[in-house]
Amino acid sequence: MRIVVICVTPRYAARPGCDCSPKAISQGVNRNLMSKLAPLGIAAGLALSLTAQATPTVEELAEIVAAQQEQIDALQRNPSASRTHIGGYGELHVNFVKDADNAVDFHRFVLFFGHDFNSSLRFRSEFELEHSLAGDGAPGEVELEQAYIEYDLAPGRVVRGGLMLVPVGILNETHEPPTFYGVERNRVEARILPATWWEAGMAYAGTLAEAGLSYDLMVHSGLAVDPDSISIRSGRQKVAEATANDWAGTARIRYHGVPGLQLAASLQYQQDLSQAADDGV
Question: In Å, what is the CA distance from 148 to each residue of 80, 88, 109, 121?
Fold first, then answer.
């Protein structure tokens, strides 16, 4: 095989004595490549150096861990800063009535207090003042509507004990003003279902998320209905030195698998609604 080497100098004429041998050309090409690759090598070395500097050293990692531990210790020393919850709401009613006096009433002022002891155990309570004033001759009352402990048995399953709202209807557990239309609560859930209705007892609740179902079981103190009036609402004892001769049970199953739709059925049983013998109730 025969190799032909040609020297081409388009811009400059060959200088006298130019060495165009294969060895000289090879050396020239190598020098040219090195001159072009040298900046790339410097850039790659600089990138590696920057990468190495971005990785924290063992001492820096120790300082980061120590700072995080200080934050954790601070939260443990003052857990109430993140675990105690305070809330509330109020209702100011104005009623314009035909052929009667108009009326304004600060119907309810409610405060919520809660505390998370840990991720599974918590306390919840609700304290209410009705009609602005309470006491002898005053139109309102001061009431403790909820005060219970809740414990997570497993994801989607809880047990509660204490003073709780009975799981019936829609308004009884969620009775804030946006839940119902109008100024006053509807008659069905004020007279037939005596919202707001709370009792003392134990409850178990769970959810079946895939089926869009939830369920509640509660064993609780019962009503004491007057046999003359048979008024369910008046039979609420509000756990205030209440008669507890006959306890009651309530069960509910609720479907909420479709957004905007909620269906529920409740069953409440108490053998003697008046808790008085031989009165026919």
Answer: 18, 17, 20, 11
Instruction: Write b or e for each residue in 260-272: b if 16 or more Cβ atoms lie within 10 A of its Cβ, otherwise e.
Output: eeeebebebebeb
Higher pLDDT, 127 or 180: 127
3-state helix, strand, coil in the chain (%, to 5): 25, 35, 40
Q: Is 264 left (phi over 0), alpha (psi -120 to 50) or beta?
A: beta
Q: Among candidates 116, 221, 209, 112, which has minimal Cα distance to 161?
A: 221
Rg of the chain over Cα atoms, rounded to whole angstroms, equals 40
Which pairing describes strands 198-208 and 121-130: parallel, antiparallel, or unpaired? Answer: unpaired
Exposure of 175 by Cβ count < 10 A (0-12 exposed, 13-18 middle, 19+ buried)?
A: buried
Alpha-carbon span 224 to 154, nearest angstrom: 36
Cβ pair 110, 90 in contact under 8 A: yes
Q: What does the pLDDT average to over 74-95?
A: 82
| pTM value > 0.85 | no
